[in-house]
Amino acid sequence: MTDSLTPGSLAPDFTLPADGGRSIALKDFTGKKLVLYFYPKDDTSGCTQEAKDFNALKADFEKAGAEILGVSPDSTKSHDKFKAKYELDFALASDESKAMLEAYGVWAEKSMYGRKYMGVERTTFLIDSAGKIAKVWNKVKVPGHAAEVLEAAKAL
Fold first, then answer.
1. Catalytic annotation, pick one of 16, 24, 47, 150
2. Residue 19 burial by Cβ neighbours in a 10 Å radius (0-12, 13-18, 19+)
3. pTM exceeds 0.70 for this model
């Protein structure tokens, strides 16, 4: 795991497979703000609500000059189903190797009912148009999160 990324840090580069059989990279967002959110698993209650909340505000994010990218260790096939089921209108990238998750410091030891395991810590990064991290939300609680990120994107 890398040192924690903080505002002002250069966002770690990435190129990942994404929904729809395409590839997506950090450089694709050069000159734009990027809401990069990491979530544990497609089609689970919290992850579904978070995706729906970001999707509902997509037009507002676009007005603020920001694009949205969700990343999880699920397969692109899983992402395609998830996007179709909830009519999500933003990209979902797949990091099955966990390399990007580790680069961003979100692949972490978690604990549930006393059992320890490795998983994605729900985290959002707001990356500015120059590729630097502007804001980080760790251990995200879903209710109200997308709206909070939108306000930060508007202020950036």
1. 47
2. buried
3. yes
* Sign of the torsion angle spanned by Cα atoms 57, 58, 59, 61: positive
Q: 145: which 2 tokens?
A: 């999160």
pLDDT tens-digit map of 81-120: 999 999 999 999 999 999 999 999 999 998 889 999 999 9
Q: Is the dihedral of CA 11, 13, 16, 18 positive or negative?
A: positive
CA distance 100 to 152: 24
Q: Residue 5 falls within a domain, yes or no?
A: no
Domain membership of residue 2 (yes or no) is no
Q: Is 10 one of the annotated active-site residues of the chain?
A: no
CATH at 73 = 3.40.30.10
β pairing state of 123-127 and 115-120: unpaired
Tell whether 23 is covered by a domain.
no
Give the C-alpha separation, 64 to 150, whole Å: 8
Chain-centroid distance of CA 29 in Å reads: 14
pLDDT digits (tens, 9 = 90+) for 28-74: 999 999 999 999 999 999 999 999 999 999 999 999 999 999 999 99
